[in-house]
């Protein structure tokens, strides 16, 4: 295997590992973010409905 | 057929789940900002997931796989260049933080704030045309990928394309950015898993040394050194270095994720975290393509090589999961692109032509209609258009059609006090000339005189678009400072408000 190929393969290995590690982290924290986004949106939907009910 | 009943069951469950989640998000849309930018409440991890999911689609797997098959390891340079682009934005907030601070929904809205309404309209038209042409080929690649991996015939390709389109258009039209964010997150998780499965099987069944030897045997040093590779070279690398920053910061579907973030700082971080994954998301499918070269040799259709390899290597059961992952990748890309381009068409092209302001309700209704029309265009274009270059270069060039002019106008508009309306017109028009000339002239390549051949060199054309756009902005502005005084941005920009 040539030196050039080896360098690309090492870079590929680092990049692939980084991708899957960051993806795992984003998945874990993303669930919390999604919950927070939907709870805020739910709250807003309830508020809008209540406002409409009053008027 | 590679697909077995268990694969179909997995795929149908996944599709049903996504459509359900996407349609359910409709209940959260209570106003225009909710529809277009999810109420600007998205945080870092969710924003990063949705940005990555938008930027990974079957189309990216296809063109990176094709590049890996045709150029070996030398295309890996694109992964490093891409990281450079995202890191510039992620570390400094270049362009993205400024636009988020101004609370714009589309990039052409910035043109009206900094230049005038007509520049916004012209910028909107270029952004829409370039964006829709860019997106036009997505569906076709998906059809090829799915028929090859699932082992379906050529005749089923159109059916696969229609089904995918109906599913994505339906939830995007109804739920807007809320649907896009929620389904993108699900799709991000599934696509990461799909990529993981595919990578494991490729690495288990195709020896890395044999991939390296095949690349050197078929392409010699050009398979390793991007400067020596006839597909790339210095012109291509310079084009990509500039283009990676411009397309990352001004690709409306991607940057709308930063606009949906809860603050300019969150918008910057979304780019930073997405940037960490960029080299991987480029190189992973590139290696699948190089592995296809090792398995099938250099004489099969370069577009079908990689999906055929995955269909052959991944066993039943896991193949269903992998295809669900790939479909997830595509659906998230489609939904974000459909929403982005239909938003631009409504707010920046159609709305300025009307006499009075459009109500929120009409804004959303017209956006939905335009999204449906784009879907039909994608189907027709995808079935009949023949690509004039590699898929990657076609997509970069149609991207340059709007990004080159937009890059000049937005960068100068945010960071150069002398940028004015004439400079903006010149930048937008000059930036679109070279890519448009390439797309037209490449259809009549044989009839061109030899001294005009550079116009049909995709790399020269791409780089030229950025140089011309910058020159147009600088020269146009400097020559007309007295007749067209530059307009200042609103105070909110300088006050650093979120």
Describe it.
- The complex is a heterodimer of chains A (55) and B (498).
- By secondary structure, chain A is an all-alpha fold.
- Chain A has one helix at residues 3-54.
- The longest helix of chain A has 52 residues, at 3-54.
- Chain A is rod-shaped.
- The mean pLDDT of chain A is 84.
- With 498 residues, chain B is mostly helical.
- Chain B has helices spanning 5-24, 32-37, 44-55, 58-71, 77-92, 96-101, 107-114, 117-136, 138-150, 157-205, 208-219, 234-250, 252-259, 264-296, 302-313, 318-350, 360-384, 391-415, 421-441, 458-479, 491-494.
- Chain B is globular.
- Chain B starts with a helix and ends with a helix.
- The chains are: A mainly alpha (55), B mainly alpha (498).
- The A-B interface holds A 1-2, 4-6, 8-9, 11-12, 14-20, 22-30, 32-34, 36-38, 40-42, 44-45, 48 and B 27-28, 30, 34, 38-39, 41-49, 52, 73, 76, 79-80, 178, 181-182, 185, 188-189, 192, 195-196, 199, 208-209, 212-213, 215-216, 221, 224-225, 273, 276-277, 279-284, 287.
Rg of chain A computed from alpha carbons, rounded to a whole number of angstroms: 23 Å
Strand content of chain B: under 5%
Query: For the terminal residues of chain B, how far apart are their CA atoms?
Result: 54 Å
CA radius of gyration of chain B? 22 Å
Secondary structure category of chain B: mainly alpha
Largest interface: A-B, 37 and 49 residues
Total number of strands of chain A: 0
Count of DSSP helices of chain B? Answer: 21
Order of helices and strands of chain B: HHHHHHHHHHHHHHHHHHHHH
Helix content of chain B: over 70%
**Percent in helix of chain A:** over 70%
Largest sheet of chain A: none
Number of strands of chain B: 0
Chain-averaged pLDDT of chain A: 84
Mean pLDDT of chain B: 84
Compose a concise summary of this entry.
With 55 residues, chain A is an all-alpha fold. In chain A, 95% of the residues lie in helices and 0% in strands.
């Amino acid at each position: 295997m040539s030196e050039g190929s080896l360098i690309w393969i090492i870079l590929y290995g680092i990049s692939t590992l980084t991708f899957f590690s960051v993806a795992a982290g984003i998945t874990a924290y993303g669930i919390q973010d999604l919950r927070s986004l939907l709870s805020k949106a739910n709250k807003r939907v309830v508020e809008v409905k209540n406002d409409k009910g009053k008027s | 057929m590679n697909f077995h009943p268990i694969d179909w069951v997995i795929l149908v469950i996944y599709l049903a789940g996504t459509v359900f989640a996407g349609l359910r998000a409709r209940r959260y849309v209570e106003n225009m900002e909710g529809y277009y930018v999810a109420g600007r409440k998205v945080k870092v991890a969710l924003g990063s997931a949705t940005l990555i999911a938008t930027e990974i689609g079957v189309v990216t797997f296809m063109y990176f796989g094709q590049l890996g098959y045709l150029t070996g390891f030398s295309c890996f340079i694109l992964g490093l260049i891409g990281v450079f682009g995202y890191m510039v934005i992620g570390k400094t907030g270049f362009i993205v933080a400024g636009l988020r601070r101004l609370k714009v929904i589309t990039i052409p809205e910035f043109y009206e704030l900094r230049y005038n309404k007509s520049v916004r309209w012209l910028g909107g038209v270029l952004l829409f045309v370039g964006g829709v042409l860019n997106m036009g080929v997505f569906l076709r690649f998906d059809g090829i990928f799915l028929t090859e991996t699932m082992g379906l015939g050529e005749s089923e390709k159109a059916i696969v394309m229609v089904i995918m389109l109906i599913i994505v258009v339906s939830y995007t039209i109804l739920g807007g950015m809320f649907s896009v964010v929620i389904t993108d997150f699900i799709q991000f998780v599934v696509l990461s898993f799909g990529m993981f499965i595919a990578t494991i099987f490729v690495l288990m069944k195709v020896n890395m040394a044999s991939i390296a030897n095949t690349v050197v045997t078929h392409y010699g040093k050009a398979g390793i050194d991007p400067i020596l590779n006839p597909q790339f070279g210095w012109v291509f690398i310079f084009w990509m270095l500039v283009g990676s920053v411009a397309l990352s910061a001004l690709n409306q579907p991607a940057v709308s994720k930063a606009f949906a973030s809860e603050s300019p700082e969150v918008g910057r971080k979304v780019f930073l975290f997405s940037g960490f994954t960029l080299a991987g998301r480029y190189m992973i499918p590139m290696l699948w393509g190089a592995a296809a070269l090792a398995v099938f040799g250099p004489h099969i259709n370069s577009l079908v090589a990689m999906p055929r390899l995955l269909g052959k290597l991944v066993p039943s059961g896991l193949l269903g999961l992998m295809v669900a992952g790939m479909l997830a990748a595509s659906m998230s890309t489609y939904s974000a692109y459909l929403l982005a381009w239909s938003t631009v068409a409504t707010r920046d092209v159609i709305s300025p032509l009307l006499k009075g302001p459009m109500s929120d309700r009409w804004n959303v209704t017209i956006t939905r209609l335009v999204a449906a029309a784009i879907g039909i265009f994608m189907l027709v274009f995808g079935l009949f258009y023949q690509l004039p270059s590699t898929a990657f270069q076609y997509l970069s060039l149609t991207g340059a059609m709007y990004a080159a002019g937009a890059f000049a106008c937005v960068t100068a508009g945010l960071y150069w006090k002398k940028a004015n309306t004439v400079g903006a017109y010149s930048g937008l028009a000059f930036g679109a000339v070279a890519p448009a000339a390439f797309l037209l002239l490449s259809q009549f390549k044989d009839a061109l005189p030899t001294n005009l051949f550079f116009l049909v060199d995709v790399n020269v054309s791409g780089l030229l678009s950025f140089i011309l756009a910058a020159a147009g902005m600088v020269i146009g502005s400097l020559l007309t400072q007295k007749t067209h005084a530059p307009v200042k941005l609103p105070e909110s920009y300088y006050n650093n408000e979120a």
